[in-house]
Amino acid sequence: MADTEHKVTPMMAQYLEIKSRHRDALLFYRMGDFYELFFDDAVAASAALDIALTKRGKHEGDDIPMCGVPVHAAEGYLLTLIRKGFRVGVCEQLESPVEAKKRGAKSVVKRDVVRLVTPGTLTEESLLDARRHNFLVAFAEIRDEGALAWVDISTGEFHVMPCPLIRLAPELARLNPSEILLSEAFEVNWADLVPDFADCVTPLSRASFDSTSAQKRLTDLFKVASLDAFGGFSLSEVSAMGAVIDYLEITQKGKLPLIRPPAKELARGNMQIDGATRRNLEITRSLSGGRDGSLVSVMDRTVTAAGGRLLERRLSSPSCDVAVINHRLDAVNFAADNRAITNTLRDALRNVPDIERALSRIGLDRGGPRDLAAIRNGLTEAEVISNALPPENIPTLIHQNMTFLTGHTDLIDLLDAALVAEPPLLARDGGYIAAGYHEELEECRKLRDEGRGVIASLQSEYANATGIQALKIKHNNVLGYFIETTATHAEKMLSPPLNETFIHRQTTANQVRFTTLELSELETKIHNAGGRALEIEKHLFSGLCSRILEHAPQITDTSRALSEIDLATSLADLATSENWVRPVVDSGRKLDIQSGRHPVVERALRKQGGDTFVANNCDLSDGRDGAAIWLLTGPNMSGKSTFLRQNALIALIAQMGSYVPAAAAHIGIVSQLFSRVGASDDLARGRSTFMVEMVETAAILNQADDRALVILDEIGRGTATYDGLSIAWATLEHLHDSNQCRALFATHYHEMTALSEKLDGAVNATVSVKEWDGDVIFLHEVLKGKADRSYGVQVARLAGLPTSVVERAKIVLAALESGEAENAKNPKAIIDDLPLFAASPAPQKAPTPKGPSEVDEKLAGISPDELSPREALQLLYELKSLADT
Predict the structure, then answer these.
(1) What pTM was computed for the model?
(2) 636 among annotated binding-site residues
(3) What is the CATH number of the domain that holds 7?
């Protein structure tokens, strides 16, 4: 009995063998219409998916835990598991149960893993964000030379660049990959190096990163003798690219996706932006982690998914190439100046599906009928867009892409003829091949859908041939279809020449039953018509996929061209409706922004129906009228941080090739963008707010070059006053003397305003405020000069601090300011001489509100709509007189 309990069934033996080859993944084991999970996989999956945990049989005397998900709903469960950090091996049935039984009654259906689902290898539409890339990244290092390669298998994008270890964190922040491949031999502490991506790492063997094997992998994939056709690559770059391809071969089980030849990026080809700056500026994600409230959410008016991905890519990687930037600006300018053409283009673009991702799924044999329709519809709209563009006087960028919009007539005609207008999602459902396209398919469909009509037609034919109108074709479960007639008429059918056609099958008391070869064949066809129709459709589907893949490079070029046109026209629409202007972008050091605005804050104010955004100038140009560094003072809540951020964003927006939110802007190329704005801690790594601030400041001072733009806010606030002031003071001097960069430096340390007299390239600026009846009114206007006060107590009052606290703070502040003036040479005396830490006076009651003034009473009795201009003027004089008294 014990032996029986411990015996492993053939199916479970198969499961255990397959699982042993995929220990690091949950195994989705296909059993009919379900994917089943067993043992520890079932326990983990049931908890992650919140589904029931059951049991199936025993193994070594213990119950086998089991849970399952329906095949038709598997994508939703996969998404949940991937987001929770699992990898999933999809184990499919490789034959039908009927085929398995041919090998023996107890034979197990052949199964194997056909795909490993990991965060960086997703292609399903439901698992991906349509407007974001899903990058798989590999980092390789050979003899201290690093390289980064990345691919999005859902679109075919494949890039590589040199990347020293010090640049790895900023580049990963730019790409925001879903999965990162590292060699098992990589010895650096990854969690310390790139803490934001500590959970994204997948280790690979050293062999995956071997540059010699990688070279062969790549040449085989792209069918070239040498990679020189794509440019010169270092050993580390080849190693990183080879690791990506090796991982795809492992996860896709040899079925590689359509990948474009690798494009090499220059290390200094794009504006360098580190992770802290990306977070602070909220370029693609807000501080809360979502898309809403980010710069991309405000700028995104694209109408295609590929256009949305291109916008995010451009904002993440602003160019430093003046010619490239101006070509992009020319395209936006053309679209803005030709509104009628732009509207026509955008109407057509709205009908363009996601061609890139449809093509990728087809290439991986995961496509469905709707992917074929997406290719057809996208290429059709590309022809429409090409015809809408004028043949002459169009900018270079659009002209270059026009050539990729046409040339697909034969493929479009084929897909038009073969596919129905709105095909189903899955090929297994059938019904996607158009009527009349295939003769045998039409016959099968007719038999499947109109079997009774076909039988009735044959019955009529036989009745006419025999002259027996009482002849009927009937059906039962024993004989199937048969011809039935009375015994009287049967004699005629049993005699020559009819007996050569009609074959006797059965005689009953009153009837005689016959069949014919034609009826037997027709019966077989009717029974098999549904299955045969589906087989024919699948065969035709496969043929259409092959034809599309023959044109894959051209289709990819068309998709890229459409996304370029979508982005240009969307940026033009944004510029026109939001009153943005074309910036002047050149290779100089000038950075002059007139009436600049923060696009996200401006949008938020408009939505809230609040105040109009106050635009401000910023001139960081060298020369008599400008200075490369502005030292900005002013109270909290006055808009200093917004001013800092908006100028950084305007430079970024200009270099991605867009119009900017300003009245005018002249941007000399910014090579690096650094931001140290806002306060946060990193408790998980033992870093206080001040330590985080110092680490980020150190990174800026150690890396910023003379073409960088640096925005710093409240350096030194996390420590003692004199410590903080000394750090801020030295930081500003270093930016001016050593980095020699352009910078906006906001501070509450008014003592630092004296530096403008010492540093030739620095000037003071302040955010103006107005004090009224003890309250502070923020004007949000940035002017040259320095603030005389911080207005901290007034801001505290606005924040709702108890009146007693505010009044006590005023007393302490007055004492400190008086003592500071009298004891300038002995700061400690300020504390020693004043009883600040003596017993505090009793909390003061809030002042009793006074009754209404004469002015208030006068205003209360006025109805402005009923006043004439003369009466209003007279009233104004009266109010002025009352106020003066």
Answers:
(1) 0.83
(2) yes
(3) 3.40.1170.10
